[in-house]
Amino acid sequence: MMQIRMDGPGADEELRSLRLWLLEIPEIRQHAKISWLTVDPQPEEMSAGALDALQLVTDNLWQMATFSLAYATWRKTRVRSPRVTVEYNGKIVTIEGDDSDVVERVIRTLAEE
């Protein structure tokens, strides 16, 4: 199971946009269940309530690679650059700005034993 959260200006709108983007990719639609998840903000986050996150339930690591490629492609279409936190099997990757190495870093971190 993977959780994706965003914070910063326009984060809610960007998270919705990413969800729609992911739903357009047949490999993800076929092999992952995408749903909304309500999470409590972290202590360092300045929020007055629960935040929405995307939750992807996938069947294998290959789907993590598919997600990473989809994210990188989606990110290139965006003007805003919210901070994105991806959590998978207890591992957390934070993506800030226009990180050109995002695909490799996310796959490498999530695939580590």
Relevant terms:
5-stranded antiparallel sheet, EACC1, alpha+beta, 113 residues, 40% helix, Alpha-Beta Plaits, 4 helices
Can you walk me through this structure?
It is globular, with a radius of gyration of 13 Å. The relative contact order is 0.23. The longest helix has 16 residues, at 61-76. Strand 4 and strand 5 form a beta hairpin. It has a five-stranded antiparallel beta sheet. The two termini are 16 Å apart. With 113 residues, the chain is an alpha+beta fold. It has a single domain (2-111), classed as 2-Layer Sandwich (Alpha-Beta Plaits). Helix content is 40%, strand content 29%.
User: What is the 3D form?
Assistant: globular
Number of helices: 4
Count of DSSP E strands? 5
Q: Provide the residue-averaged pLDDT.
A: 80
Strand neighbour order, sheet with most strands: 2-3-1-4-5
Helix content: 25-40%
Architecture, according to CATH? 2-Layer Sandwich
- Name of the CATH first level: Alpha Beta
Low-confidence residue ranges = none
The percent range for strand residues is 25-35%
CATH structural fold name: Alpha-Beta Plaits
Distance between the termini: 16 Å
Structural class: alpha+beta
The total number of structural domains is: 1
Largest sheet: 5 strands, antiparallel
Secondary-structure element series: EHHEEHEEH
Radius of gyration: 13 Å
Short description:
With 113 residues, the chain is an alpha+beta fold.
Topology:
Blueprint: E1 2-7, H1 11-23, H2 26-31, E2 32-39, E3 51-58, H3 61-76, E4 83-88, E5 91-95, H4 102-111
Antiparallel strand pairs: 1-3, 1-4, 2-3, 4-5
